[in-house]
Amino acid sequence: MNSFSHICVYCGASNGVNEEYLAGASALGAEIARRGIGLVYGGGSVGLMGAVARGAADNGGAVYGVIPTPLMPKEVSGPPIGHLEIVDSMHTRKARMAELADAFIALPGGFGTLEELFETITWTQLGIHRKPIGLLNIAGFYDPLLAMIEHSIEQGFVRPQYRGLLVAESDPVTLLDRLAVHESPDGIVQWITTKET
Fold first, then answer.
1. What domains lie within the chain, and their CATH numbers?
2. Burial 146-172 (b: 16+ CB within 10 A, else e)
3. Entry pTM
4. What's the rounded Cα separation, in Å, for the pair 11 and 22?
5. Cα–Cα dist 167/147, whole Å
């Protein structure tokens, strides 16, 4: 059983075209708060980022945002939600969010969300961390991505056991329940660090 103090949520700074995306983001934030888990997210107050953060904050949850200075004008509108840490770059943002979190969930989003998700998956594959990763597959948003992963497995570019790196569910309660008992698949490459002498 995994015990989470903080979950990092990756998601878009836009609303998307389907109203279910905003509703799902808000529901996830609320459920994270109800479980007494802190939310780590990209620090924005617009789009799905704002929805998940408000969903957590409105239900008494701790909210910790991390945002690079250049994105402040684009992603923050009005007072910050919860604690906001301002950093110098996207690289620092991602590293800080990963440091704070015990698990990761991706909501619908664009290139940035996908980049964050796949970097996190790769870190697991390499054994840099063994933190669970989930997809909140609202309205089937991630169905094409899951199909692409299956295609990569079929074509020999992803090992079949790595299919278990991602937990995908359409409902926040079910997703969080599954992440709580999720274990990384066997065969993870162990990351080797060396010290200069």
1. 6-180 (3.40.50.450)
2. eeebeeeeeeeebeeebeebbbbbbeb
3. 0.92
4. 11
5. 14
123 phi, psi to nearest 5 deg: -60, -35
* 104 pLDDT above the threshold of 70: yes
Please choose, from the candidates 103, 123, 115, the residue with its C-alpha nearest in 3D space to the C-alpha of residue 167: 103
6 - beta bridge partners? 38
Tokens of 143: 């169905």
Amino acid in position 94: K
Give the chain as a 3 state SS string.
CCCCCEEEEECCCCCCCCHHHHHHHHHHHHHHHHCCCEEEECCCCCHHHHHHHHHHHCCCCCEEEEEEHHHHHHHCCCCCCCEEEEECCHHHHHHHHHHHCCEEEECCCCHHHHHHHHHHHHHHHCCCCCCCEEEECHHHCCHHHHHHHHHHHHCCCCCHHHHHHEEEECCHHHHHHHHHCCCCCCCCCCCCCCCCC
With contact defined as beta carbons under 8 Å apart, do 60 and 91 qualify? no
Question: pLDDT, tens digit, for every residue of 45-101?
Answer: 999 999 999 999 999 999 999 999 988 877 776 788 999 999 999 999 999 999 999
